[in-house]
Amino acid sequence: NIMKILNLKNLDDISSPYIFNGIYKRHQCKKKKDNKIYSKEILDKYCNYPNIRFLQDNISLQTQFKFDIRYDTLNNRIIVPWYDKKGNLVGITGRYNFNDLGNNPKWKAIENFPKGNFLYGIYENQKEIEKSDYVIIGESEKFVMQLDSYGYHNALALGNCTITDTQARIIKSLPVNKIILALDEGVNIEHLLAQCNKLKGGIFNNSKEIYCIFDNNNEIIPKGSKGSPSDYGKENFEILLNKHCFRKEK
């Protein structure tokens, strides 16, 4: 029980922290974000081959082909498509493939879309999720692809550290009995447990078991690193899964 491990007595007053006193969240709630389906022909302008940067970051060539990773030779960017559950192309993100970014963001949306309405990997991994009977939820596209390379084909990503209402409904509707939340280092325990709470109750009220990975002693993930549980190789991920995965009690 994670409450006993971390000496927490009461979760009733726990709320999720928001940056800039919640200004972004309030703005986000006011603006209705519509989903858009893009023609897959958009991807034809990008080269259909894998890249060394991802390979060096524990993402295999096989996984890169599975997730339809492309390359933008004009702008030197790695192209990562997002698909919905039916396989529709709903957005594209790009990762600059050089170290000195200057004023450029590391990741940039190439075709804008509301990430909070989707889960990365749900199309590619949906059959394996059904077979495995549990799902592992992380933050980034890289998380899903790294786990796929380690042999875990049942991961999904939020695209953020906060679960939206839409994502919560999708996750709760998955045909699994167990959900494991694996957010990046730096997310405090109050926020992590608040996300766990979003996966309970509602129209899909059921007996799903909710777990979360939390390396409270920084055995694997260095403090201040902002590292993902998947960043440190298969062996270390399995240590986190076996030793630092706690059940969220009701």
Query: What share of residues is helical?
Result: 25-40%
pLDDT averaged over residues:
88
Task: Tell me the number of helical segments per DSSP (H or I, 4 or more residues long).
Answer: 9
Q: Whole-Å distance between the termini?
A: 10 Å
Q: Overall 3D geometry?
A: globular
Tell me the series of helices and strands, N- to C-terminal.
HHHHEEEEHEHEHEHEHE
- With strands numbered from the N-terminus, the spatial order across the biggest sheet is 6-5-7-8-9
Task: Report the sheet with the most strands, covering strand number, pairing sense and barrel closure.
Answer: 5 strands, mixed
Give structural attributes:
9 strands; 9 helices; alpha/beta; 4-stranded antiparallel sheet; 250 residues
Can you tell me about this structure?
The radius of gyration is 18 Å and the shape is globular. By secondary structure, the chain is α/β, with parallel strands linked by helices. The chain has helices spanning about 1-5, 25-30, 50-55, 60-65, 120-130, 140-150, 165-175, 190-195, 235-245; strands spanning about 70, 75-85, 90-95, 105-110, 135-140, 155, 180, 210-215, 245-250.
Secondary structure: elements and pairs:
Blueprint: H1 2-5, H2 23-30, H3 52-56, H4 61-66, E1 70-72, E2 77-83, E3 89-96, E4 107-111, H5 122-132, E5 134-138, H6 141-150, E6 155-157, H7 165-173, E7 178-181, H8 189-197, E8 209-213, H9 234-243, E9 245-248
Parallel strand pairs: 5-6, 5-7, 7-8
Antiparallel strand pairs: 1-2, 2-3, 3-4, 8-9
What's the short story on this structure?
The protein has 250 residues and is α/β, with parallel strands linked by helices. Helix content is 29%, strand content 18%.
